[in-house]
User: What shape does this take?
Amino acid sequence: CGIWGQRLREALEVELPEDTENRSKEELFESWSQNTAYCYRLAESLMNKALSELSEKVNGGVIDPQDLDESQLQLFSLYGREQETWQSVCLVLSSSESAGTEAVTLNRPLARSIDERLGNLLLTGQQDMPSGAVAQEIERLVSAFGQEAAVYLGGPDRQLEPGILIHGLADLPGAEEISPGTRIFRGGVEAAIDGILEGRCSPLDFRWFVGRHRQLNTKRGEWQAVACARPVALKQCLGLPKPLWHEVMELCGGE
Assistant: This one.
C-alpha cells in the first residue's frame, strides 16, 4: 500500500516494547503484527488522524486535489479502490504463473431477472443486439431466466466479454469443474437453458457473473486466501439474513 503501508509499519514499530527475552526488533514486529485486532485498531487510529487532516482542507464542501500532498492523494486512491472491493468474497476460478489469477466476486448482486439486453451481454459480451441463431439463443435464455435469475457483478475486468456461469451440477453437459474435488462447475450454458425450460433445473441453481477480477494478490495483504467451501460458494447472496462476508469471517475463526 505504498506510503500508508509504510506509515502503519512505523506506527507499529513505535508501539513495540523493550524486549526482555533478547528478541530482535524484527522478531517482535513479526509477533505483534499477527494480532489482527490490534493492527486493525492501530490502522483505524492512523486513518482517523489522516481524515481529520483532510477535512481541514475542505473549502465550500470541495477538496482541491492541488492542495493535497502525495500521501493524501494516495489515500483518496486507496479509498476509491476499497469502495469497489469492500467486504468482497471471491471465488478463484483459475490460477497460474503465466495467466495469473481469475476470480469472481460472490456477493455483489446485479440483477434478479434477465431481459434481452442483459441476456445479450451474458451470451456475447456485446451491447448491440445480434440477429439469426444468436438472437434465438438469447430469446431462449430470456425464456429460462426472464422471471427469476441470480446475476452478479463479478469484478471490474472484462465486463464486455460473455458472462460466466457457475453451478454445482456435475452432470451438466459442457460444464467443467473449476478445480478437482471442489464439485463447483463452470459453463454448460446451453444445457442449463435446456434444463430450466424442460423443468429439470431451477434458475437459482445457477449464478451468472458479469466481469471478473484479474491478478488478485495476497502478498500485499489486500486479499486473504481461504479454503473453498462448496455450500458458501454456491449460496445465492439474495436477501441473506447474515451477509456472506460475516459468515465467511466466522468460518475462518471470527476475524
Summary: The chain has a mean pLDDT of 87. The first helix runs from residue 2 to 15. The first strand starts at residue 90 and ends at 96.
